[in-house]
Structure formats: C-alpha cells, structure tokens
Amino acid sequence: MSDSPATRPSLLVRIREPRDSEAWSQFVDIYAPLIYGFFRKNGLQDADAADLTQDVLRAVAKAARELDYDPRRGSFRGWLFTIARNKLRNFLAGQGRRCRGSGDTDMQSLLEQLPAPDEDQQAEWDEEYDRRLFDWAAAQVQTEVQESTWQAFRQTAVQG
User: Would residue 153 count as lying in a domain?
Assistant: First the structure.
C-alpha cells in the first residue's frame, strides 16, 4: 500500500465534463509526465512514448464520463497504471507482429520486454507519481511566494 497522496476525487469528478479545460489542464499537468516517463523507462522512443501517452489520456477521457470513483474498489492511479501497462503491452506485441516473418530474434526479444504486472512496477509507478505531484505542487506554490521564501524552502526542505 502506498503512502502517496490519493488522487483528488474532486478532480476526477470535474474531468467527467470534457469542457472543463481547467480540470483537464490540471489532470494532464499531473499525469501526462508520469505516463510518458513510464513508457520511456520501458524503452520506448520519444515519439512512441508521446503517442501512447495521448492514447492513455484519450482512454481516460472516454471513460471519465462514466467514472464512478470508489476508493474501496481500488485506486485511480492503479486503474491508470493498468491502462498504461496494457497500452505498452499492445504496442510491444504490435512491434513483434511486424518482426514476425524476419527470421531473426526480434520477436523473442520484444516478448521478453513485455512488463509483467508485479508489485515492483506498481511501486515504481507510485514513486514516480509522488515525484511528479511534488514537482507540480511546488510549481504552484512557487508562484505564490516571494523568491527568498521559495529559496529558503528549497534549501531546507528539498535539498536538505
């Protein structure tokens, strides 16, 4: 179980409305770097990672209208992780299909790259979320305080 902060239910309610650009902007600011980083860590090129990130965000947008968030049924981040992991698997499997007739070992290599759904990968996802959320929140706070206050915070709380 992660100690990281839960996704704000209010944000999940707000993204149900596709025209709530402020909510979607916040959602993308928080989650797009997390999703993109997951794909890059799993060996995807920049363009492929960016494309799959958009695919995940589209899947969330499509499902958001019907989203009935209940933390007792599981975390939103866990659901998002599952979507991202499945998109990655489908992408890598598709890469393998393109290599199928080549007679080389590319297919086996690609299959070996498919991530297994394990606790380590989920823990990595949660840690990366924590980092991204902190960066996002810090950027919000930095605009609200004086530079000297911000630097004092960075030096004592962040850099130690």
Answer: no
Of 32, 14, 34, give the one whose Cα is nearest residue 23.
Answer: 14
Domain of 84, CATH number, reads: 1.10.1740.10
**pTM for the model:** 0.69
Q: How far apart are CA 12 and CA 23, in angstroms?
A: 9
Q: Does 30 fall in a domain? A: yes
Q: What's the mean pLDDT in 7-18?
A: 83
Q: Which of 127, 44, 20, 50 is nearest to 81 (CA)?
A: 127
Q: Are 154 and 81 in contact (CB under 8 A)?
A: no
Is residue 122, in this structure, part of any structural domain at all? Answer: no
Tens-place pLDDT, residues 70-81:
777 778 888 899
Give the HSE-up count for residue 124: Cα atoms under 13 Å, Cβ half-sphere.
Answer: 13
Structural domain includes residue 89: yes
In the chain, what percentage of residues exceed pLDDT 70?
81
Q: How many domains does the chain have?
A: 1
Domain carrying residue 46 = 9-116
* C-alpha separations of 49 from 1, 90, 92, 160 in Å: 27, 13, 12, 33
Reported as a single tens digit per residue, the pLDDT across 26-60 is: 899 889 999 999 999 988 999 999 999 999 999 99
